[in-house]
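Marked as duplicate of an earlier ticket. Keeping the data here for the record.
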Amino acid sequence: MSDEKIKNETGVAGTTETEAAKAESKDRETEPIIRIRDLCFEYTDKKSRFGALDHIDLDVEKGEFVCILGASGCGKSTLLNVLAGLYKPGSGKVLVNGKKITGPGPDRAVVFQHYSLFPWLTCKGNVLFGLKSGKGKHKYSGKERKEKAMEYLKNVNLEQAADKYPDQLSGGMKQRVAVARALALESDILLMDEPFGAIDPRLRLELQELISALSVEKQKTVIFVTHDIDEAILLADRIVVMEPAKIRSVEEISFPHPRKRADLIRNGEYEKLRLKLTSAFYDQLQDSIGGEVVL
């Protein structure tokens, strides 16, 4: 085939169809793992409509940890539920790996605020559920599944509680089992909806540092919903600050991983960032309630 013919067919002199296909594949690989464009969502009933998301645009890169920060009712959990495939967008598009989300899928694991464990299964049984369902990337034998379940429990420091049932566990232990079960699904994306909100401060800090380390170790892309500014700074590569139905601002977090709260609070840049986020957070809260917020 002449260079001229190749140029006519592909638009690039000296480029074959195979090379063009490879270039297209490479372009897809460089696309963000999550792409949201002009997303709108409304809650409706027979008498009224409520716009929860209004023309949202957001890209998330592979391996990135993004915190969605905002007050109650701003739409952050709605956005997470759309990404999980639990809610269908009213308009706009939501893509994962270049494909439209049509419902829940094995490429996305979800950890909710409430533990959602199966009470009739042990800790190991709950983690095995994801592996037995066959939704992970790999097919394991029965022996391999048990070994993997114990590996994930060890990741969250719960191998000694493998044979205990959920009603024998503390709140922090239950949430660690939920995290282990989500990791066992071997999904590329981890969606977390205020998972540590109901846990006491000491355990919450332990779990925050644990999930930060695991997300790096397991190379997960994480979307983490929170209303806690300090939690967002500790965990995130980027913080998306939401006001009702919209994205107010996006902040890059440059502190290196792994992060420890004790180290951050001694950093002068941490306090500057915290004040900036506090101002944005409470300004939008003041706007939403139509009055002054006193800190």
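See parent ticket for discussion. The CA atoms of residues 154 and 160 lie 8 Å apart.
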